[in-house]
Design a protein that fits this description.
The complex is a heterodimer of chains A (502) and B (440). Chain A is built from 28 helices and two strands. Chain A is an all-alpha fold and 502 residues long. Chain B starts with a helix and ends in a 5-residue tail after the last strand. The chains are: A mainly alpha (502), B alpha+beta (440).
Chain lengths: 502, 440
């Protein structure tokens, strides 16, 4: 509701005229008082009346009396974590370092402690879902209270899992990206019911949304989903068909995988130690429907993609069972078969099968980078390395250090697993040696190394390095490396102390 | 150093300096560590050896490192180290003595200059020339104020409807004319007006309030001869006539007290950072506003740590109410404020505000410390509710921090009040004062 004086100012005195009163005693007193003096034009009197009223409002401001707050937070049951651990949490938040934050928060939880109340004010800076879950888990009674009274941090109420009913409502109401998250969450709780929601809305979804939403079925995937996925193979969108095929290929007993097996029987054969391929004379409608080729007239150019999809869609164990070859021997046999290695690499990275990953890595690493497509080679070595399970990753990284090559730093960078002590020590020695020799090959790997070094290597990692005085970028990388290691060191020390105290 | 870690880290220029300062707050990189009544110092082994010293009275430090941040991470690290564990007393090395002496000499020069300005008769400068220049400026300002008055009246004549569509140049042009007219204070007010249109549902009313207060100022300026000298002096300052620092230190009213730093706000402007620090005298309960300005990354001349107190004298700028001030002398090193005088409820606080406004109607904001209030979030808005149930609207900027620290329990809050909203400056919760209100 706008008061009369403001309305007059909005309209303008040119159009609003000179009213005798603006229904505000203080403003009216100024308007009429100054008007009587006749020294100030009406526009000026309006301004002065507004100024007087503003000061009077400031001086006479009255508090509101109808604000009531919720009940106060309950007493904390857990002790607060140590200031050092709290500092580590704060540093990880400030650095937007999700991995480090997760490590620090997990340590707080493992110690049976909670974050101090003051740290909860940083909840607004925590964005990543896994970090939020971990943050909420150590937010204590104060966090649960904040979740109730301040909607922007409602996510702090971890204990209150959303019911499947609530998820269904959200799925109906949310926008596309949020619906994928909701559907994924629902698949962990009630997979069949969640799939039914998608089936119900399927005809009305846009093609891009259909493909994305279908991807959510990867969570809780089972043969119960097979009929729906089979139907999705007939979708008019290539993206949806590809997604359906990718999901069906993860069900080894599915009819889809069986159809691939039948094709593979026809197409692949072993002659001596070489895998030979007998390409179909022409593509069939069934090949298109199973998302192996884009259309029946695709021609010979689609052969490599066909082979990659065919091989990638079959369980890796099929090859050993059929040809009685080890992964390494089969990779060697297939080295000339167009698309087969790409299919195997896809299957291996998806299933994270250590033996196949190692065999394929050895193959790609053995290729001459000068004669191959470097981008493809880089892609596969990095992808395969990143998929290595923990027990293989350290050994592989060590072997890479024995044979440094052009792809070395990025491969180590891609190593997702924690390193063992031997690899950590070895890496640190190599870094020092390479810096002493004036080379910086391993420097790009420092960032990753800071996160995967085992705690036994922290002391060595924190020892000063001899850096060239002029290399600012090197100093920055090194300082960041040590800062991350130092934080992990604090987290480890405080965790150990808390456990001993407990 | 009798401060808390948070208080020391509040001096840091940014978050990365906080992290670096904490990291250097461990004994390992330090050697030749020592402290006296005046200073703490040490050498830090970084990529070179840096000499680091801090003047304990002002918390101003100096480091031989090449960093352009002030204070640098080494100064912060030394302060953190001093807070975490007592530093053994030692005799000041030459490089510390030299620096402290230089600071004392500079301060002495300033004091002497101020005293001279206050006591000595005016130097026999070119009186005629000075009077002529003053008259020229007066005429220029008067013309600028007249033009501003006309501009303001035109706004009301044509109406404020649609003014939100005006480009920034509409406001900036008028501000530039006031700068040309040597009325920079009024120019700043006009620039601030540009922020109001279109923001929030009640912007026309807020704009009219601000225009009205500006019109009162121009009106008062025009009638300056009829006003009391102190009010005339206040109006001159608000128009843009500066009062030299020496004059304030030399002849401004002085109040000695234990000054508590209630809080501070730093506002970023295009080429400048402006800092408002609110001090509250523990014994006299006098409020003092210290304004400091710094260009780019430069440090503010004096360091104030919210939640600390120091004994000293404050000199006030001329005006009908002790308000804007300079710290004339510090006679103790800052310590954690043990007791902050507080209002028991908002009724008492608002009575105090009204009394201040009665003396200085042009006051646009004031500060307070109130006991036992509960921060409450209510939808999009937030409030502070006192023990009687009275509530004031709260700026929502720091509301999560306030809620987290209070948990719905009563806490003591320092804030800045502009008649509409409380901007929180600090909160005393669980026995510790925490500064609120980061850069805008």
């Amino acid at each position: 509701v706008t008061d009369a004086l403001t309305t007059l100012a909005i309209v303008g005195t040119a159009r609003g005229g000179e009213p005798a009163s603006v229904a505000d005693p203080r403003a009216d007193a100024v308007l009429t008082g100054l008007g009587r003096l006749g020294t100030v034009p009406f526009d000026g009197r309006v301004l002065l009346a507004a100024g007087v009223r503003a000061i009077a409002r400031f001086a006479g401001a009255l508090p509101k009396s109808d604000v009531t707050g919720p009940a106060a937070a309950e007493a904390e049951l857990l002790p607060a974590c140590s200031p050092r651990l709290d500092d580590a949490v704060a540093a990880a938040i400030d650095a937007s370092d999700a991995a480090l934050l997760l490590e620090a928060l997990t340590a707080v939880a493992a110690c049976g402690q909670r974050l101090p109340a003051a740290r909860l004010a940083d909840a607004g800076k925590v964005r990543e879902p896994a970090s939020r879950r971990a943050f909420a888990a150590v937010a204590g009674a104060r966090g649960a209270w904040l979740a109730r009274v301040h909607p922007p941090v409602a996510w702090l109420a971890v204990a209150e899992e959303r019911s499947v009913d609530a998820l269904e409502r959200a799925f109906d109401e949310e926008k596309a990206a949020a619906r994928v998250v909701t559907l994924t969450r629902a698949r962990t709780l009630a997979p069949a019911r969640a799939r039914a929601w998608l089936e119900a809305t399927w005809p009305t979804e846009k093609a891009d949304d259909r493909a994305t939403l279908l991807g959510a079925l990867a969570t809780g995937l089972s043969r119960d989903d097979e009929p729906f996925l089979e139907a999705a193979l007939g979708d008019r969108s290539q993206g949806v068909r590809d997604q359906a095929a990718a999901l069906l290929s993860q069900l080894p007993e599915s009819a889809y995988v069986e159809r691939l097996r039948v094709r593979a029987e026809r197409v692949f054969a072993l002659q001596g130690s070489t895998l030979v391929v007998e390409w179909p004379a022409q593509w069939q409608r069934e090949d298109v429907r199973d998302a192996l080729v884009p259309n029946v007239s695709a021609g010979a150019t689609a052969r490599a993609a066909y082979a990659a999809k065919l091989v990638g869609g079959l369980p890796l164990g099929d090859w050993g069972a059929r040809f009685a070859l080890s992964p390494a021997a089969f990779v060697a046999a297939a080295r000339e078969a167009s698309g087969v290695l790409a299919g195997l690499a896809n299957g291996a990275t998806r299933s994270r099968d250590g033996a196949w990953l190692v065999a394929l890595l050895a193959h790609f690493r053995g290729l001459d980078p000068a004669r191959e497509d470097r981008a493809t080679l880089h892609h596969w070595t990095r992808a395969l390395f990143a998929a290595l399970p923990a027990e293989h990753a350290s050994a592989e990284a060590r072997s890479l250090l024995d044979r440094p090559g052009v792809l070395l730093p990025s491969e180590i960078y891609g190593c997702a697993a924690q390193w063992d002590v031997a690899l950590g020590d070895r890496f640190l020695r190599e870094v020092r040696a390479s810096l002493a020799a004036g080379t910086h090959d391993l420097v790009p790997a420092l960032d990753r190394a800071a996160r995967v070094l085992p705690r036994e290597c922290f002391a060595a990692a924190l020892a000063p390095l001899e850096l060239p005085p002029t290399a600012d970028w090197l100093t920055r990388t090194h300082d960041q490396f040590q800062a991350t290691v130092r934080l992990r060191h604090v987290i480890a020390e405080e965790s150990a102390l808390a456990r001993r105290t407990a | 150093l009798a401060l808390t870690l948070d208080q020391v880290l509040a001096l840091a220029p940014d978050a990365s300096a906080v992290a670096a300062g904490k990291k250097l707050g461990e004994p390992r990189p330090w050697r030749a560590l020592g402290a006296s009544e005046r200073a703490v110092w040490a050498e830090c082994q970084g990529s070179a050896v840096y000499q680091v010293r801090v003047d304990l009275a002002s918390l101003v430090g100096k480091c031989s490192c090449p960093s352009r941040k002030f204070p640098c991470k080494h100064v912060l690290g030394l302060l953190v180290l001093s807070v975490r564990a007592p530093v053994a007393a030692a005799s000041e090395p030459d490089w510390v003595v030299e620096w402290l002496d230089k600071r004392a000499a500079a301060a002495g020069t300033k004091d002497a200059r101020a005293q001279t300005a206050a006591q000595a008769p005016e130097a026999p400068v070119d009186e005629t020339g000075r009077a002529k220049r003053a008259e020229q400026r007066r005429q220029r300002v008067d013309k600028g104020v007249e033009a501003l008055d006309l501009w303001l009246r035109d706004l009301i004549h044509n109406g404020l409807g649609g003014i939100e569509a005006q480009p920034p140049a509409f406001w900036e042009g008028q501000a530039a004319r006031l700068v040309d007219a040597q009325a920079p204070g009024l120019a700043a007010v006009v620039r601030a007006l540009a922020e109001i249109p279109g923001r929030g549902a009640e912007w026309p009313a807020r704009l009219l309030d601000a225009l009205g207060r500006l019109a009162l100022l121009t009106h008062a300026h025009a009638r300056g001869d009829a006003l009391e000298a102190s009010l005339r002096a206040e109006i001159r300052q608000r128009v843009g006539f500066t009062v030299p620092r020496d004059e304030v230190l030399g002849s401004g009213a002085r109040v000695a007290d234990a000054w508590i730093v209630l809080g501070q706000i730093v506002e970023d402007e295009p080429r400048l950072r402006a800092q408002r620090t609110w001090l509250l005298g523990e014994e006299t309960r006098t409020l003092a506003l210290v304004l400091q300005f710094a260009a780019g990354n430069a440090t503010f001349e004096e360091a104030f740590v919210p939640g600390t107190a120091f004994r000293g004298e404050v000199a006030f700028f001329p005006g009908p109410l002790p308000h804007r001030a300079l710290v004339a002398a510090r006679t103790s090193i800052p310590t954690v404020a043990a007791r902050i005088p507080a209002h028991d409820d908002f009724a008492a606080m608002l009575d105090d505000v009204a009394a201040r406004l009665a003396k200085l109607p042009f006051l646009d904001r004031t500060a307070f410390h109130v006991r036992g209030v509960v921060p409450v979030a209510a939808g999009e808005r937030a409030f502070l509710v006192d023990r009687t149930g009275a509530a004031l609207a709260l700026e929502t900027r720091d509301v999560l921090r306030l809620l987290a620290l209070s948990g719905g329990h009563p806490v003591d809050v320092s804030g800045e009040w502009n008649g509409a909203f409380v901007r929180p400056l600090g909160v005393l919760a669980e026995g510790a004062f925490r500064a609120l209100g980061g850069p805008t």
